[in-house]
Amino acid sequence: MTNKYTTVRYDHLDEVVHKQVMDNGLEVFIIDKKGYNKKFATYTAKYGSVDNHFKAHGEVHNVPDGIAHFLEHKMFDKEAGDVFNKFSEMGAGANAFTSIDRTSYLFSTTENFFENLQLLMDMVEIPYFTPEKVEKEIGIINEEIKMYQDNPGYRLYHETLNAMYENSPAAIDIAGTLESISEITSEHLYLCHKTFYAPDNMVMILAGDFNIEETFNYIETHQHSRRTFEPSEIERFIPEEPYGVKTPHKTMELAVSTPKVMLGFKSLPDDSDSATRERRDAAMLFALDMVFGEQSPYYEELVERGIIDDSFNFAYQEEEIIRHTLMAVETEDYETFTKEIVRIIEEVKGTDFFTDKRLQSQKRELMGDYLTSLNSPEYIANQYTKYYFDGYDLYNVPQVVDSITIDDVKNYFNSSIDTKNMVEVIVKAYE
């Protein structure tokens, strides 16, 4: 076989990435980490919990909520038994996860790499569902859903999304509901597997020390042994989301010793390209750290007054179909917490709080963490996959970070956090 792969060198990071698009459309990236003993592989479909209404090959389908997660569970269950055990027998640790926009299968190993890779590809590519096994899995996932419904942190997060979003499928629990799961059939699973696990809707990322040509040839030979695929031509239907939040205030009672509160600030996704979204994501990370991070005077003030403790956390999330900021803490005085967070946000917007000195400090800290993370094949494979689906380049982070100005930080903070577009969700102990 002739070389069909291309190579990109990131000299500023001493990193090398090789890429080949297989004849059936599967994209494969090998991140070359010479001298590393452990190898890591991810095999990921652009298919997540939001994909419940779609058009494929001319037909429109509505499928039950939670089916992407259900399908992920079922891919390990084959006629010959549980594939997890086979990975273990060959010295590999395997796992999988489903998010709103992707389903990823992965393994890491220091031995039998090609045998484990063959197992991974066969497991993901060859579906095996029977009505009996689907019915059994419904019972298993029902128990999982019930367990999560009793988990205060999990409930707090999902109830906050549900309070923010009116129509977005992002507000639906990734696992679905007891009602939606009960509707899933083996026919649904075969349909979704055929549609979303098509090679041109998937990507494989390998990180470690490989013979590049041998590895690409191994994957290519395997892909040639599969049936011929037509282009997947998937059209996703995502309902339009209004600007305002659905439910500004929500209170729940669960088994907690200290109340928990989460604030959600909703921002609508816009028509920004992936480069703009990547810069905004980084700028918001800097902004939130400057205002609410441990080095901030506001953080010190809130700790001294007993309003927050080390349970306080915050995050900005931006994907193609969602964009929001979340803040959470465990506190008896959740009313004061909400009031003070709103005060701080409005105060920051009305002053010159953001300074270049603070920004440069944040940049140095982030770049230190980033460079350290590049020593981990597991981090690289997972993050390269995430960045790929978001339209970003993991190895372009230094340039993105360097390009962000103090005006970017200020403008993105001001436009992304609107206290009038906020939800407050509280979890209290049973009375």
Question: Could you characterize the architecture of this molecule?
Answer:
By secondary structure, the chain is α+β, with helices and mostly antiparallel strands. It has two domains: 6-236, Metalloenzyme, LuxS/M16 peptidase-like (Cytochrome Bc1 Complex, Chain A, domain 1, 2-Layer Sandwich); 249-429, Cytochrome Bc1 Complex, Chain A, domain 1. The chain is 42% helix and 22% strand. The protein is built from 15 helices and 17 strands. A seven-stranded mixed sheet has the order 1-2-3-11-4-10-9, sandwiched between helices. A hairpin with a 4-residue loop joins strand 1 and strand 2. This is Zinc protease AlbF. Keywords: Hydrolase, Protease. It comes from Jeotgalicoccus coquinae. Residues 65-177 form the Peptidase M16 N-terminal domain.
Give a concise summary:
By secondary structure, this protein is α+β, with helices and mostly antiparallel strands.
Radius of gyration equals 23 Å
CATH topology of the largest domain: Cytochrome Bc1 Complex, Chain A, domain 1
Number of strands: 17
Name of the CATH homologous superfamily of the largest domain? Metalloenzyme, LuxS/M16 peptidase-like
Beta-strand share of residues: 15-25%
Number of helices: 15
Domain Peptidase M16 N-terminal: 65-177
GO biological process, one term: proteolysis
Domain Peptidase M16 C-terminal: 184-366
Pfam families: Peptidase_M16, Peptidase_M16_C
Topology readout:
Layout: E1 6-10, E2 15-21, E3 27-32, E4 39-45, E5 53-56, E6 59-62, H1 67-75, E7 77-78, E8 81-82, H2 83-89, E9 92-98, E10 103-109, H3 113-125, H4 131-149, H5 152-164, H6 178-181, H7 186-196, E11 202-208, H8 212-224, E12 234-236, E13 249-254, E14 260-266, H9 274-292, H10 297-304, E15 313-318, E16 323-330, H11 334-349, H12 356-373, H13 377-390, H14 397-403, H15 406-416, E17 422-429
Parallel strand pairs: 3-11, 13-17
Antiparallel strand pairs: 1-2, 2-3, 4-10, 4-11, 5-6, 5-12, 7-8, 9-10, 14-16, 14-17, 15-16
Helix pairs in contact: 1-7, 9-12, 9-15
